[in-house]
Amino acid sequence: MCGIVGYVGTRPALPFLLAGLHRLEYRGYDSAGIAVVTGGALEVYKEVGNLSRLQEMLAGVDLRGTTGIGHTRWATHGEPTTINAHPHTDCSGTIAVVHNGIIENCEQLRRELLARGHRFRSDTDTEVLCHLIEEYSDGDLFAAVAAAATKVIGAYGICVVSARHPDLLVAARNGSPLIVGVGNGENFVGSDVPAIAPHTQRVIYLDDGEVVAITPEGVQGVVGKADLSARVHAVGWEPGEIDRGDFPHFMLKEIHEQPQALARTISGRLVESEGDSHLGGLNMTPKELLDVQRVIIISCGTSWHAGLIGEYMLEETARVPVEVEYASEFRYRNPVVGRGDLVIAISQSGETADTIAAVREAQRRGARVLGIVNVVGSTIARLTDGGVYLRSGPEIGVASTKAFTGTLAVLFMIALHFGRQRHTSNAEGRIMVRALQALPDQMRQILAREAEIAELAARFVNGRNALYLGRGYSFPVALEGALKLKEISYIHAEGYPAAEMKHGPIALIDKDMPVVVVAPQDSVYDKVVSNIEEIRTRRGQVIAVATEGDTEIASKANHVIYIPQTLEILTPLLSVVPLQLLAYHVAVHRGCPVDQPKNLAKSVTVE
Ligand code: M6R
């Protein structure tokens, strides 16, 4: 969850480190720090709070060193304090380490190292790494890091510098993402592509168990792999994609990017005449598709909500039974899964630790696992037996938006293809293809109503609770709308199946309770209208998301946000957009830090 950057080259490292950390702040903002090797010594600066405080501290500091590391922290072991901020150093202050992950045997290692005379300053698990490396140091930093890595149990992505090795970074990975950016006469390390994207498009994704030595000339020392140059990949992101542009927040930019992102997701993957999708990455023959007995979708957070909608899509079109599991539960509950099951892992980042563990568990039990992933080359993308990339472009906002709609489009294309092998006719398939192709323009129509939604959002500002309701395809949309509101505006919100309301939550409804009802004109519309009546009878404030032209609902709800008509199965791709905008504007009205919500990080790389 923490962000890591490293630079080794001929230019001063500091500007690169600070700019890289700025682009990685979505990975954590409890504290930030840097270490630069300058004239045979190590200069370390760190500060609690977000990066701006470190930048203030460094204003006017002239650091010329051309090798350095930086870190932005999401605290696990040890409170967010300056002492616990990274980089951490060894007893002599010559070795500095930045770390993402959790060292599980840190207490035992700490005791052993204390007994050998090492002096600890922080409460972090990371500091044991510094002292372990110090323990093994005999002039070869690379060998010392490799030796220390053999003693550690847990997840880590680390980058290490030493005052005694002015032109060397050593990086090691086990379970936490780490990449090397390949430049000309300079090289880079990042926990994530945005750290390095403006400087190089060429990256090496490190594998678990790997330790590499990086100098200005190249990536030289390798343990466990023969030739790294063969593993250089093109990132495929334009530098401009990771800037906010004219938008005040990444989240808003990404909400507005959805029409283009969706167009990219489906581009070249639909064949209208066949009423089908072509997804080469699935790596499955028609026979293999027909042999699938059951689909299990595993994911977390917003990706889990997308999975619920995938369940409805796949069951409807392919008549195959589908289960949707939180990856964290699947991993630890001895699941019945094996051959005949197709597991689909959904993850925007491809680095969510629980989802990675669930993928491994499913594979261990013999299931074929597909990935629906946004970040190219990420762990889940590389671990799975096949899959489909979202092509949504970098998603930086902690609150996931365009990846959600991208995932829904991919799930729909998978469902369409499964359906065509089993039940769906060519004519039905063609209708579905055309409806999907129309969505980017329909999304633009919703985005054009942003001002109206922003005005509505002002009424939520002093609210403490909100209820989100929906039925059928709209139920997971209600869950997603509630998650968006709570994660960025800190208003307690619950998503519920609309019909379940009378089994409990109806007790909460009064004139102060806003109830957002996702009520498009679909097969359950009449039932949802009855639910709205029940809320109004109890003086609840109803905000309905409804289909354009629906005049009936206007007479029943307090406010209506209209979305264009589409197929019922595709409605979530439209109905979620006003809910994203609503959550965003509520958070802005309340003065919340939209892109850096408290306690959250973009990518949850610890279990
Ligand atoms: O990268 P992933 O899709 O695996 O991430 C899963 C969740 O951590 C993520 O969706 C999270 O819930 C977001 N903050 C939601 O906006």
Describe the structure in brief.
The protein contains 19 helices and 26 strands. It is an alpha/beta fold and about 600 residues long. The protein has an 8-stranded antiparallel β-sheet, with helices on one face. A 6-stranded antiparallel β-sheet has the order 5-6-7-8-12-13. Strands 18-17-19-20-21 form a 5-stranded parallel β-sheet, sandwiched between helices.
What does this 3D model show about the protein?
With about 600 residues, the protein is α/β, with parallel strands linked by helices. About 35% of the residues lie in helices and about 25% in strands. The protein contains 19 helices and 26 strands. The strands form five sheets. It has an eight-stranded antiparallel sheet with strand order 3-2-4-1-10-9-11-14, covered by helices on one side. Strands 5-6-7-8-12-13 form a six-stranded antiparallel sheet. A five-stranded parallel sheet has the order 18-17-19-20-21, with helices on both faces. The chain binds 5-amino-5-deoxy-1-O-phosphono-D-mannitol. The site of 5-amino-5-deoxy-1-O-phosphono-D-mannitol (M6R) has 16 residues, from helix 9 and helix 16.
Descriptive key words:
eight-stranded antiparallel β-sheet; Rossmann fold; 19 helices; alpha/beta; Glutamine Phosphoribosylpyrophosphate, subunit 1, domain 1; globular; six-stranded antiparallel β-sheet; 3 domains; binds 5-amino-5-deoxy-1-O-phosphono-D-mannitol; single chain; 607 residues
How would you summarize the topology of this molecule?
Blueprint: E1 3-8, H1 13-23, E2 31-38, E3 41-48, H2 51-58, E4 67-73, E5 88-89, E6 95-103, H3 106-115, H4 126-136, H5 141-151, E7 154-162, E8 165-174, E9 179-182, E10 187-190, E11 202-205, E12 210-214, E13 219-222, E14 232-234, H6 250-256, H7 258-266, E15 270-271, E16 276-277, H8 286-291, E17 294-299, H9 301-318, E18 322-326, H10 327-332, E19 341-347, H11 353-364, E20 368-373, H12 379-383, E21 386-389, H13 402-422, H14 426-447, H15 450-457, E22 465-470, H16 474-489, E23 492-497, E24 514-519, H17 525-537, E25 541-547, H18 551-554, E26 559-563, H19 571-589
Parallel strand pairs: 17-18, 17-19, 19-20, 20-21, 22-23, 22-24, 24-25, 25-26
Antiparallel strand pairs: 1-4, 1-10, 2-3, 2-4, 5-6, 6-7, 7-8, 8-12, 9-10, 9-11, 11-14, 12-13, 15-16
Helix pairs in contact: 3-4, 4-5, 7-13, 7-14, 9-13, 9-16, 13-14, 13-19, 14-19, 15-19, 16-19
Bound molecules: 5-amino-5-deoxy-1-O-phosphono-D-mannitol.
